[in-house]
Design a protein that fits this description.
The structure holds 2 protein chains of 2 kinds. By secondary structure, chain A is of the alpha/beta class. Chain A has one domain: Rossmann fold. Helices cover 48% and strands 18% of the residues of chain A. A 5-stranded parallel beta sheet of chain A has the order 2-1-3-4-5, with helices on both faces. In chain A, helix 1 packs across helix 7 (136-157). Chain A starts with a strand and ends with a helix. Chain B has a single domain (2-237), classed as Jelly Rolls (Sandwich). By secondary structure, chain B is mostly beta strands. The chains are: A alpha/beta, B mainly beta.
Chain lengths: 159, 238
Amino acid sequence: MQDVNVVIVFYSRTGTTEKLALAAAVGAVQGKANIRLRRIPETAGEEEIARLPGWKESHDRMSWEYIAPREADAAWAEGLVVAIPEWMDLASPEVKNCLDALPGGKVAAALGRAGLDQALTAAGMTLVQPETGEDALDSARLAGVRVAETARAARQNQP
Amino acid sequence: MITIRKAKDRGHADHGWLNTWHTFSFASYYDPAHMGFRSLRVINDDRVAAGKGFGAHGHRDMEIISYVLEGNLAHKDSMGESRIIGPNTIQAMSAGTGIVHSEFNPSPKEPVHFLQIWIQPAEGDVKPSYHQMSFEPQEKRGKLRLLAAPHGDLAEGTGAAAIHQDARVWASELGAGESLTQPIAKGRFGYVQVARGNILLNGEKLGEGDSASVSAESSVTLAGDGSDGGEFILFDLA
């Protein structure tokens, strides 16, 4: 069984959605995928970041630990997981730029924000239907597993 | 039979932030003649620049051992471990069903030099686990310090990490003229990786980064060579 490539893209301020993304990454690895974790770059200014407790610490740490999605990731990915905080506006520049940069035709899962699944479908993705887990993190893990498995099946079905 | 692999014949990649030598095929270095030895799959001799490192990535069904020679390495994983390890510490991780981790050099100035060792597990899909133990430098001076041993086969208090393979891993530092002998049971194999300095293996000269596989020998005698001796990792493999 060959490994498939799954890219997990997320936006996070204080680390909550990062945890979802990490859980999805573990799921994808459990589903025998190679993974890349990519953080959508922050556009907020320093003053705004300083206003929310914990944001600056997380921002500094995540800036160090993750890189932003690159064009090469889109070509590499056979499956995608996109994780956006529940409160986040789907029309925000962070989300919009991310969705615009995503290649169509990939197997994908949406985590966090309601309506993100429709946005991904509109961007040309084939959404997976993961099982619901014991909690949000477990559900994210199951979404990662399902994306890896579905991407592998899609590859095998190719002529 | 002792088969020597010279340091300069290893795979090599210099990415600027990472200068790495691969004893066995790894990443973009692929040589079908060097895919590992018995269950030993990877020995990477890595130097990572200050503040740089390996971002979050996944592993499955692999026993991963990190051994720092100089500097520090920050580790964070999906099991919730967030640690900084330095020299004279064994870090071993059973990836099993799947883990995600990152490894960075937390220093703003100093590089980190470490060996990363992968051993293929005897069983797949084990529950992921993490082990970290530190020891005193004198525990490896002139003798073998056990770093890892088979799961369920550990004597209490050895301070070694449990791995899911019939393999034992030791570190040792031998000064010039110091020596030790370790038996190798019939049908088993050995592997020696020189971490730094110079070592004699059954009389054969090994320099820094050199390694050697050992087959059909009843024992290995290792001695510190040159003016300062050296440090090595010894494997006993099924």
